[in-house]
Amino acid sequence: MPIYEYGCYDCRKRVSVFFRSFSEVETKEAACPRCGGTHLKRLISKVAVLRSEESRLENLADPSSMAGLDENDPKSIARWMRKMSSEMGEDLGSDFNEVVDRLEAGEDPESIEKSMPDLGGSGGASDDWFGD
């Protein structure tokens, strides 16, 4: 079931149009889901590739993924962290984003750690997986 992106000349928006089959793409005129207009131009879309968890983990374990990493440069660490979070394919939360943003701004990792004492968890009994 294909989904194509179009630029609508009527409402000036980028829209996605869903078709039930590839043959429907050839026979049915696309209509803008926002305004109903039919004056559309098909655009080149980003490609999404579905990967298995095993494939993502293999990429994380590849030593070449650390190429260019300078442990003394906060911005280099931030780039590496963003790359690794992208490989994970999951939202790692607001604390993660705050740390990376601060590293990108050039802040020292030790000062970030001092200002966020609960960052790694307490490591004690309160780290209950079930919230009991």
**What sequence of helices (H) and strands (E) makes up the elements?**
EEHEHHHH
- What distance lies between the first and last C-alpha atoms, to the nearest angstrom? 44 Å
Rg from alpha-carbon coordinates: 22 Å
Largest sheet strand order: 2-1-3
Structural category:
alpha+beta
Write down the overall mean pLDDT: 80
Q: In percent, how much strand structure appears in the residues?
A: 5-15%
DSSP, total strands: 3
Structure notes:
It is a single chain. The chain has 132 residues and is of the alpha+beta class. The protein has two domains: 3-42, no CATH class; 53-115, no CATH class. Helix content is 36%, strand content 11%. It contains five helices and three strands. A three-stranded antiparallel sheet has the order 2-1-3, with no helix packed on it. A hairpin with a 5-residue loop joins strand 1 and strand 2 (14-18). Helix 3 runs antiparallel to helix 4. The longest helix has 15 residues, at 74-88. The chain is elongated. The relative contact order is 0.10.
